[in-house]
Amino acid sequence: MKILLFGVNGQVGWELKRLLEPSEDIISLDRNQANFEDLAELKNILMKVKPSLIINAVAYTNVDKAESENEKACLVNTKAVGVLAESAKNLGATLFHYSTDYVFDGSKDGFYYESDKTCPINIYGKSKLGGEKAIFSSDCDHVIFRTSWVYGKRGNNFIKTILRLAQEKDSLQIVDDQVGVPTSAELIAEITTLAIQKIKSGTFMNNDLKGLYNLVPSGETTWYDFARLIIEQSMEAGLKLRVSLDSLLPIASESYPLPAKRPKNSRLNTEKLTSVLGIKMPSWQQNASKTIGELING
What we know:
The protein has one domain (2-156, 182-218, 262-283): Rossmann fold (3-Layer(aba) Sandwich). It has nine helices and twelve strands. It has helices spanning 11-20, 39-49, 70-91, 123-138, 158-168, 185-201, 223-236, 271-277, 284-296; strands at 2-6, 25-29, 53-56, 94-100, 141-147, 150-151, 172-175, 179-180, 183-184, 211-214, 221-222, 248-251. The chain is globular and about 60 Å long.
């Protein structure tokens, strides 16, 4: 199975390469080697490599900047994904792709299922939903993982931001009325690798794995409680912080206005994924604590 991985230097792409490279025939490309803003170049790469499995770990992820860069977000998250899907169909390849909780408006009570109606409330969410629709309409073999609040050891993310700010500022105000599930890039890569192994082994016949899945750990939290975990673990590890737990202050979303609206509820139900793969998802705290420890200890 020849695998073509796009976005190798990103949070998820880096973890995927680390897990897949020892045992797979894999070609890994970064954004400089595969420009998702040049659709003709992207198509040429796919036709030249002729992979049997395509993994797309590339996305335009600057949620706020997307509000003023609508065309760029759409180009990378929708049109380029359409090229991947069309090429996968022509090559008879399977496409793995990652989407987001931001395809929902966050107004639902409880957890979102894969079948729930989508209604993004920002440009980023609309562009990611456009990518999903492009894959569906292509009728290529595909696995789409919707995930949320992604963090990892590489790139910019919430854990790194809190660790930095907690050493620079005397107090921090963190939104506490948005509920979701922090998800590690490592977990996303592990589940992707497991799915690929099951496809290779023939466990899934007749494209039984094909489709859309929610991929997050178990549990739920707010950004404020996520930040508390980061601060608590940092203090226990002896990291010198200016911020204390008492100076970590909860605020409403309305008190911290941003260019892009965020869904208040980003909880995703994973029953479909755990049933198909026969697994139990770890708690979000378990994964987050591991990454926090690795970042603190270098």
